[in-house]
Specification:
2 domains, 59% helix
Length: 268
Protein backbone atom coordinates (compact mmCIF):
# COMPACT_ATOMS: atom_id res chain seq x y z
CA UNK A 1 0.00 0.00 0.00
CA UNK A 2 1.36 3.43 -0.98
CA UNK A 3 1.64 6.13 1.67
CA UNK A 4 1.58 9.91 1.44
CA UNK A 5 4.92 10.62 3.11
CA UNK A 6 6.41 14.10 3.30
CA UNK A 7 9.83 13.47 1.72
CA UNK A 8 11.58 16.52 3.17
CA UNK A 9 10.29 16.28 6.74
CA UNK A 10 10.94 12.56 6.93
CA UNK A 11 14.47 12.74 5.52
CA UNK A 12 15.47 15.59 7.82
CA UNK A 13 13.96 14.01 10.94
CA UNK A 14 15.39 10.54 10.36
CA UNK A 15 18.92 11.88 9.80
CA UNK A 16 18.68 13.81 13.08
CA UNK A 17 17.49 10.57 14.72
CA UNK A 18 20.48 8.64 13.33
CA UNK A 19 22.87 11.29 14.66
CA UNK A 20 21.24 11.06 18.11
CA UNK A 21 21.66 7.27 17.99
CA UNK A 22 25.34 7.81 17.06
CA UNK A 23 25.08 5.45 14.10
CA UNK A 24 28.14 5.25 11.92
CA UNK A 25 28.49 6.15 8.25
CA UNK A 26 27.73 2.62 7.06
CA UNK A 27 24.34 2.57 8.81
CA UNK A 28 23.49 6.02 7.42
CA UNK A 29 24.55 5.05 3.92
CA UNK A 30 22.45 1.86 4.01
CA UNK A 31 19.42 3.67 5.41
CA UNK A 32 19.63 6.36 2.71
CA UNK A 33 19.86 3.65 0.04
CA UNK A 34 16.70 2.09 1.51
CA UNK A 35 15.03 5.48 1.60
CA UNK A 36 15.91 6.10 -2.05
CA UNK A 37 14.21 2.84 -3.11
CA UNK A 38 11.27 3.46 -0.76
CA UNK A 39 10.72 6.86 -2.37
CA UNK A 40 10.93 5.30 -5.85
CA UNK A 41 8.27 2.74 -4.90
CA UNK A 42 5.86 5.52 -3.92
CA UNK A 43 6.50 4.83 -0.21
CA UNK A 44 4.98 1.36 -0.29
CA UNK A 45 4.36 -0.14 3.15
CA UNK A 46 6.33 -3.29 2.20
CA UNK A 47 9.59 -2.67 0.36
CA UNK A 48 11.11 -5.74 -1.33
CA UNK A 49 14.91 -5.46 -1.35
CA UNK A 50 17.84 -6.99 -3.22
CA UNK A 51 21.12 -7.49 -1.32
CA UNK A 52 23.34 -6.90 -4.37
CA UNK A 53 21.42 -3.75 -5.30
CA UNK A 54 21.55 -2.26 -1.81
CA UNK A 55 25.21 -3.16 -1.29
CA UNK A 56 26.01 -1.41 -4.56
CA UNK A 57 23.98 1.69 -3.69
CA UNK A 58 25.38 2.00 -0.17
CA UNK A 59 28.93 0.96 -1.18
CA UNK A 60 29.06 -1.83 1.41
CA UNK A 61 31.57 -4.49 0.37
CA UNK A 62 30.77 -7.26 2.88
CA UNK A 63 27.55 -9.30 3.00
CA UNK A 64 28.06 -9.82 6.75
CA UNK A 65 28.35 -6.06 7.33
CA UNK A 66 25.24 -5.50 5.20
CA UNK A 67 23.14 -8.00 7.18
CA UNK A 68 24.49 -6.73 10.51
CA UNK A 69 23.58 -3.13 9.63
CA UNK A 70 20.05 -4.11 8.61
CA UNK A 71 19.56 -5.85 11.96
CA UNK A 72 20.93 -2.82 13.85
CA UNK A 73 18.63 -0.44 11.94
CA UNK A 74 15.78 -2.76 12.96
CA UNK A 75 16.96 -2.83 16.58
CA UNK A 76 17.02 0.98 16.66
CA UNK A 77 13.45 1.10 15.33
CA UNK A 78 14.29 2.82 12.08
CA UNK A 79 13.08 -0.14 10.01
CA UNK A 80 11.42 -3.52 10.40
CA UNK A 81 13.58 -6.13 8.68
CA UNK A 82 11.85 -9.31 7.48
CA UNK A 83 14.49 -11.65 6.00
CA UNK A 84 13.45 -14.07 3.28
CA UNK A 85 14.28 -17.77 3.55
CA UNK A 86 14.00 -18.17 -0.22
CA UNK A 87 17.20 -17.04 -2.03
CA UNK A 88 15.15 -16.23 -5.14
CA UNK A 89 12.78 -13.85 -3.35
CA UNK A 90 13.94 -10.60 -1.83
CA UNK A 91 13.63 -9.84 1.87
CA UNK A 92 11.10 -7.21 2.93
CA UNK A 93 11.69 -3.99 4.87
CA UNK A 94 9.16 -1.62 6.44
CA UNK A 95 10.49 1.88 7.14
CA UNK A 96 9.14 3.78 10.13
CA UNK A 97 7.74 7.19 9.27
CA UNK A 98 9.37 10.29 10.74
CA UNK A 99 7.38 13.03 9.01
CA UNK A 100 5.48 13.43 12.32
CA UNK A 101 2.02 14.17 11.09
CA UNK A 102 -1.32 12.43 11.31
CA UNK A 103 -2.69 14.74 8.61
CA UNK A 104 -0.61 13.89 5.57
CA UNK A 105 -2.05 16.74 3.48
CA UNK A 106 -0.63 19.30 5.88
CA UNK A 107 2.89 17.92 5.28
CA UNK A 108 3.02 19.16 1.69
CA UNK A 109 5.18 22.25 1.50
CA UNK A 110 3.98 25.34 -0.40
CA UNK A 111 7.23 27.31 -0.19
CA UNK A 112 8.75 26.43 -3.56
CA UNK A 113 11.71 28.77 -3.18
CA UNK A 114 13.05 26.99 -0.10
CA UNK A 115 12.57 23.52 -1.58
CA UNK A 116 14.16 23.91 -5.02
CA UNK A 117 17.38 22.16 -3.96
CA UNK A 118 15.45 19.30 -2.34
CA UNK A 119 13.26 18.92 -5.42
CA UNK A 120 16.38 18.72 -7.63
CA UNK A 121 17.85 16.05 -5.35
CA UNK A 122 14.54 14.17 -5.46
CA UNK A 123 14.59 14.09 -9.28
CA UNK A 124 18.24 13.03 -9.34
CA UNK A 125 17.65 10.16 -6.92
CA UNK A 126 14.67 8.95 -8.96
CA UNK A 127 16.72 9.10 -12.17
CA UNK A 128 19.59 7.08 -10.66
CA UNK A 129 17.15 4.53 -9.20
CA UNK A 130 15.47 4.01 -12.57
CA UNK A 131 18.93 3.44 -14.14
CA UNK A 132 19.73 0.82 -11.50
CA UNK A 133 16.39 -0.96 -11.91
CA UNK A 134 16.86 -1.09 -15.69
CA UNK A 135 20.38 -2.46 -15.21
CA UNK A 136 19.19 -5.21 -12.85
CA UNK A 137 15.96 -6.04 -14.73
CA UNK A 138 17.36 -9.23 -16.31
CA UNK A 139 18.53 -10.53 -12.93
CA UNK A 140 15.13 -9.75 -11.37
CA UNK A 141 13.30 -11.53 -14.21
CA UNK A 142 15.57 -14.58 -14.04
CA UNK A 143 15.18 -14.88 -10.26
CA UNK A 144 11.40 -14.65 -10.69
CA UNK A 145 11.48 -17.37 -13.35
CA UNK A 146 13.49 -19.67 -11.06
CA UNK A 147 11.08 -19.05 -8.18
CA UNK A 148 8.09 -19.91 -10.41
CA UNK A 149 9.80 -23.15 -11.48
CA UNK A 150 10.57 -24.11 -7.87
CA UNK A 151 7.02 -23.22 -6.80
CA UNK A 152 5.64 -25.41 -9.58
CA UNK A 153 7.80 -28.32 -8.38
CA UNK A 154 5.91 -28.32 -5.09
CA UNK A 155 2.60 -28.78 -6.88
CA UNK A 156 3.80 -31.60 -9.17
CA UNK A 157 2.23 -34.99 -8.55
CA UNK A 158 4.31 -37.67 -6.88
CA UNK A 159 6.65 -39.40 -9.32
CA UNK A 160 7.17 -36.34 -11.54
CA UNK A 161 10.52 -35.45 -9.97
CA UNK A 162 13.74 -37.37 -10.62
CA UNK A 163 17.52 -37.33 -10.40
CA UNK A 164 19.35 -35.37 -13.07
CA UNK A 165 20.60 -38.63 -14.61
CA UNK A 166 16.97 -39.30 -15.66
CA UNK A 167 16.32 -35.81 -17.02
CA UNK A 168 16.15 -35.09 -20.74
CA UNK A 169 18.51 -32.18 -20.04
CA UNK A 170 21.28 -34.62 -19.11
CA UNK A 171 21.71 -34.85 -22.89
CA UNK A 172 24.03 -32.26 -24.44
CA UNK A 173 22.08 -31.78 -27.70
CA UNK A 174 18.74 -31.39 -25.91
CA UNK A 175 20.15 -28.76 -23.54
CA UNK A 176 21.99 -26.91 -26.32
CA UNK A 177 18.88 -26.82 -28.54
CA UNK A 178 16.73 -25.60 -25.65
CA UNK A 179 19.08 -22.71 -24.82
CA UNK A 180 19.54 -21.86 -28.52
CA UNK A 181 15.82 -21.08 -28.85
CA UNK A 182 16.27 -17.76 -27.04
CA UNK A 183 18.64 -15.08 -28.27
CA UNK A 184 19.41 -13.85 -24.74
CA UNK A 185 20.83 -17.28 -23.84
CA UNK A 186 22.88 -17.47 -27.04
CA UNK A 187 24.52 -14.15 -26.19
CA UNK A 188 24.89 -14.79 -22.47
CA UNK A 189 26.42 -18.27 -22.74
CA UNK A 190 28.41 -17.77 -25.95
CA UNK A 191 31.47 -20.06 -26.02
CA UNK A 192 30.54 -21.87 -22.79
CA UNK A 193 31.65 -25.46 -22.24
CA UNK A 194 28.08 -26.70 -21.81
CA UNK A 195 29.12 -30.33 -21.30
CA UNK A 196 31.18 -29.24 -18.28
CA UNK A 197 28.15 -27.73 -16.55
CA UNK A 198 25.90 -30.67 -17.44
CA UNK A 199 28.51 -32.92 -15.78
CA UNK A 200 28.73 -30.59 -12.75
CA UNK A 201 24.95 -30.67 -12.22
CA UNK A 202 24.96 -34.46 -12.70
CA UNK A 203 27.66 -34.89 -10.01
CA UNK A 204 25.82 -32.52 -7.66
CA UNK A 205 22.52 -34.37 -8.13
CA UNK A 206 24.22 -37.70 -7.53
CA UNK A 207 25.97 -36.48 -4.35
CA UNK A 208 22.99 -34.66 -2.87
CA UNK A 209 20.20 -36.95 -4.06
CA UNK A 210 18.41 -33.86 -5.36
CA UNK A 211 15.31 -34.56 -7.43
CA UNK A 212 13.29 -32.11 -9.46
CA UNK A 213 11.43 -31.70 -12.76
CA UNK A 214 12.94 -31.16 -16.21
CA UNK A 215 12.09 -27.47 -15.84
CA UNK A 216 13.88 -27.45 -12.53
CA UNK A 217 17.00 -29.09 -13.97
CA UNK A 218 17.42 -26.64 -16.85
CA UNK A 219 17.08 -23.85 -14.29
CA UNK A 220 19.88 -25.43 -12.22
CA UNK A 221 22.17 -25.72 -15.27
CA UNK A 222 21.63 -22.03 -15.96
CA UNK A 223 22.15 -21.19 -12.29
CA UNK A 224 25.51 -23.01 -12.24
CA UNK A 225 26.62 -21.05 -15.33
CA UNK A 226 25.22 -17.74 -13.99
CA UNK A 227 27.16 -18.11 -10.75
CA UNK A 228 30.33 -18.79 -12.74
CA UNK A 229 29.69 -15.67 -14.84
CA UNK A 230 29.16 -13.64 -11.66
CA UNK A 231 32.45 -14.95 -10.24
CA UNK A 232 34.24 -14.42 -13.57
CA UNK A 233 35.06 -18.16 -13.70
CA UNK A 234 32.92 -19.40 -16.57
CA UNK A 235 34.48 -22.47 -18.22
CA UNK A 236 34.63 -21.91 -21.97
CA UNK A 237 35.60 -24.03 -24.94
CA UNK A 238 39.22 -23.57 -26.02
CA UNK A 239 40.22 -24.38 -29.59
CA UNK A 240 36.98 -26.30 -29.98
CA UNK A 241 37.80 -28.51 -26.97
CA UNK A 242 35.68 -29.17 -23.92
CA UNK A 243 37.37 -28.90 -20.53
CA UNK A 244 37.48 -32.70 -20.26
CA UNK A 245 39.00 -33.07 -23.74
CA UNK A 246 41.62 -30.45 -22.92
CA UNK A 247 42.58 -32.22 -19.67
CA UNK A 248 42.87 -35.56 -21.49
CA UNK A 249 45.08 -33.95 -24.15
CA UNK A 250 47.32 -32.24 -21.59
CA UNK A 251 47.77 -35.50 -19.66
CA UNK A 252 48.79 -37.26 -22.86
CA UNK A 253 51.23 -34.45 -23.63
CA UNK A 254 52.56 -34.48 -20.06
CA UNK A 255 51.94 -30.75 -19.81
CA UNK A 256 52.08 -30.42 -16.01
CA UNK A 257 52.34 -26.61 -16.07
CA UNK A 258 48.98 -26.06 -17.77
CA UNK A 259 47.31 -28.81 -15.73
CA UNK A 260 48.44 -27.18 -12.48
CA UNK A 261 47.31 -23.78 -13.82
CA UNK A 262 43.84 -25.34 -14.17
CA UNK A 263 43.94 -26.23 -10.46
CA UNK A 264 44.50 -29.93 -10.97
CA UNK A 265 46.75 -32.20 -8.91
CA UNK A 266 49.15 -33.90 -11.31
CA UNK A 267 50.25 -37.51 -10.78
CA UNK A 268 52.09 -39.24 -13.63
Amino acid sequence: MKQDVNYIKHHKAVNIKMMELKLNAVHISLYNALFLLWNQSGFQTDLSISRSQLMDLSKIGSANTYTSCLKELDKNKLIVYKPSHNPLIGSVVNLYRFDNSSDNSSDITTDNSSDNSSDTLHKLLNKETIKLINKESELINENLEKWIIQHKEGSDKKGKVFLFSNSKFNDYDTTRNYLAKQQKYIEKYRGVDLRHYIDEVDKWSDRSGKKTTDRGWIAYIREFMDKAIENNSLVKLEKGETRKEKIDRLYKEGNTKELMAMGLHVHF
